[in-house]
Design goal:
heterodimer; A: 154 residues; mainly beta; OB fold (Dihydrolipoamide Acetyltransferase, E2P); five-stranded mixed sheet; globular; B: 551 residues; mainly alpha; 7 helices; 2% strand
């Protein structure tokens, strides 16, 4: 890898679709996100794990909606008028992740992404890809979708 | 023990008297028993002497016979007499009998009682010694043999000692009797002391204590305390005295209670009398004062009548001017009525306007609320738009480089949506202000309506008053006419009154005299009442010295 290539690598732009869980800002790579939705008409699934909120019908497609805050080991999210569902493609199926409040799409370069610390707000570091210090002086935690959904597949 | 006091005292005396009687009896008894003791002891002592006399005379005889003295015959006679006296005495002492007091057998004799006990036994021993001794003496005198004389010499001392022993025993017996007497006396002394102690306690309990109790009760009574009664235990004269005291105290208590009641009544009555006298005095004083006032008033009335007559003239002219004034008043009242009617109409208009204003302001409030609903809808639409813009951004990102231009448009839309949200927020805040203001306006209009209604009420009141005044003015006009007529009658009455006041003055002077007499009488009554009160207080004080039991 030449020096020029490395520099281009550092200048490479990423976009993250961001949201709040509680007061903390989290984000997924925008390529993972199919859409954001305010449809919260969920059907409960009997005998499902407690972090599964239910299933929803999105234009003929059945999607499982999970409480990602509970899934990453924090308290349960409350459904409010500001709650939104991020539709994520995981492998071949779509999964809905509940967010307390949606934020904007944030664009940053590779060099602005810092390595994750071992622990963010009591959440294990392996769930994060990195940390970005945004222009609004907030910390954006970049979540690793596979790590977040990992336990579900076990 | 139900005994009278004299019986009790007699009993004590008798017990005391029995002690010396017993002592005297013991002494007499002992002295009677001792009476013969001295004689017997004397005789016993003489017997001792006689043993030696016999021995001496025996030897004297022997000697005189040997010397052939003629006195020997006489000596023998004396010896035989002595022996006879000894034997008679010895026999009398042991078995009783008469004994010559001198050595002459034919002389004066005295009876001696028989001895007993140890003395008698000793006398038997003496007798046993005596008879051999007597034989020896007789044989010595008859035969003059030395052998018998020696026996006499040998046996006279044992005889003497035996007799001496008997004498000693007699003496001891006599002394024993003295001892008996001493013990009898001692016992009676002890008995006497015991009886004295018992008598003291008994008499103290049965005589002295009840008397003292009576005395203390009598002292309590003498101090005026009639509350207590005495407990009577005995039936003798002291008991009777106690009962009599109790009866006296209860009678006295009852009497004093009655006196006390009477005194209280008397005190109250005198107090009341005093009050009545006071009142009477006050009344008579008032009467005098009033009579004086009336007299003065009568005089004043007289002079007043004169001025009344003058005033009547003046009144006539005044009544005329009043009549013209009332007409003017009537016209002005009519004007007031008209004006108040106008004011009433204006107030009604004001109330109507205020009600309309309230309705309009309420509508304004409703419109503001509707605008609020619309702005909420706008907010919802903006939220949706924002979400759409976000999804558009996501789609643009997926399109890669080709979607970059679209991403910018999406960003703009999002920005627009956010500004819309902010603007609707501002509208909402302002609408809230409008709503508050409309509420306040409605309240204020309500207050204004209230005030206007009050004004309406006041105007109504004025209207009513004016009507009343109108009626009153008419009455005044009528009254003035009547007054005019009345004034004429008054003038007539004044002259009649003048005559009457003269009579009143005369009668008042009589009343004054009577009132003064009443005043004097009541003063006398008062003095009497005061004296009566003093008397009853004194009596109360005297009775108060007695404490009496509650009835």
């Amino acid at each position: 890898m030449t020096e020029n290539q490395a520099k281009n690598e550092l200048e490479k732009e990423h976009q993250f679709s961001c949201f709040y869980l509680g007061d903390t800002l989290y984000g997924y790579d925008i390529d993972l996100v199919q859409e954001v939705n305010d449809q919260l008409d969920l059907t409960r699934v009997p005998l499902a794990p407690d972090y599964v909120l239910g299933i929803m019908n999105l234009r003929g497609q059945i999607i499982t909606v999970i409480d990602q805050q509970k899934k990453i080991g924090l308290k349960s999210s409350q459904i409010t008028p500001k709650s939104r569902v991020l539709i994520i493609k995981s492998g071949t199926e779509y999964i809905g992740l509940l967010a307390d409040r949606i934020a904007e799409v944030i664009t940053c370069t590779e060099k602005e992404i810092a390595k994750p610390p071992s622990n963010v707000n009591g959440i294990q570091g392996k769930l994060f890809k990195g940390i970005v210090h945004t222009k609004r002086n907030e910390l954006l935690a970049l979540l690793d979708i596979d790590a977040v959904l990992d336990d579900e597949q076990v | 023990m139900k005994l009278k006091i004299n019986q009790k005292m007699g009993l004590i005396m008798i017990v005391f008297f029995l002690i010396p009687v017993f002592m005297f009896s013991a002494t007499v008894y002992t002295t009677q028993r001792q009476k013969n003791d001295s004689l017997i002891i004397n005789l016993a002592g003489r017997q001792r002497m006689l043993t030696q006399k016999m021995s001496k005379e025996c030897l004297t005889y022997m000697h005189q016979t040997m010397m052939e003295d003629k006195a020997a015959i006489n000596t023998k006679k004396v010896l035989l007499n002595t022996m006879a006296v000894f034997e008679v005495t010895l026999t009398a002492l042991s078995e009783s009998g008469n004994v010559p007091l001198s050595l002459d057998l034919e002389g004066e004799k005295k009876f001696v009682p028989a001895t007993s006990g140890a003395v008698a036994e000793q006398l038997v021993k003496v007798k046993e010694l005596w008879f051999p001794f007597k034989a020896s003496v007789n044989r010595s005198v008859e035969t003059l043999e030395e052998e018998h004389v020696l026996i006499v010499l040998r046996d006279n001392l044992p005889l003497l000692s035996a007799m001496d022993k008997a004498t000693g025993l007699m003496q001891r017996k006599a002394e024993e009797k003295i001892d008996t007497l001493f013990y009898a006396q001692l016992i009676s002394q002890v008995l006497g002391v015991v009886i004295v102690v018992i008598a003291i306690f008994w008499s103290r309990r049965n005589i002295v204590m009840p008397i003292r109790q009576s005395v203390s009760f009598a002292e309590t009574v003498s101090e005026g305390n009639l509350e207590k009664t005495m407990e009577v235990k005995h039936t003798d004269e002291i008991g009777m005295l106690g009962n009599a005291l109790n009866h006296t105290v209860s009678m006295l208590s009852e009497m004093i209670r009655k006196i006390n009641d009477d005194v209280t009544t008397l005190t109250e009555s005198s107090g009341e009398m005093n009050i009545v006298a006071d009142e009477m005095a006050g009344f008579s004083d008032t009467t005098v004062a009033k009579a004086n006032t009336v007299a003065a008033a009568a005089e004043e009335t007289d002079s007043a009548m004169n001025s009344i007559a003058a005033a009547m003239e003046q009144a006539y002219t005044n009544v005329d001017s009043v009549a013209s004034s009332t007409e003017e008043l009537s016209t002005s009242i009519g004007e007031i009525t008209q004006r108040t009617g106008d004011a009433s109409n204006s107030v009604k208009n004001a109330v109507d306007h205020a009600q309309k204003a309230t309705a309009q302001v309420s509508e304004l409030g409703n419109a503001a609320e509707e605008i609020g609903i619309v702005s909420e809808t706008i907010t919802a639409i903006s939220d949706k738009t924002s979400l759409l813009a976000l999804n558009a951004t996501i789609e643009a990102a997926r399109a890669g480089e080709a979607g970059k231009g679209f991403a910018v448009v999406a960003g703009e839309i999002k920005e627009l949506a956010q500004q819309t949200v902010q603007a609707t927020g501002d509208i909402s805040a302002k609408l809230q202000g409008v709503q508050q203001l409309t509420d306040q306006t409605v309240a204020m209009i309500g207050e204004i309506t209230e005030v206007v209604e009050n004004v309406s009420l006041i105007i109504f009141g004025i209207n009513e008053s004016v009507e009343q005044q109108s009626m009153a003015t008419q009455e005044i006009t009528q009254n003035i006419m009547q007054t005019s007529q009345g004034l004429k009658e008054v003038t007539q009455n004044v002259s009649q009154t003048k005559q009457a006041t003269g009579q009143v003055a005369q009668e008042i002077s009589e009343v004054n005299e009577n009132a003064e007499q009443l005043s004097n009488s009541s003063a006398q009554v008062q003095r009497t009442a005061v004296r009566l009160k003093e008397l009853s207080e004194h009596l109360n004080e005297l009775v108060g010295n007695f404490a009496i039991a509650e009835a």
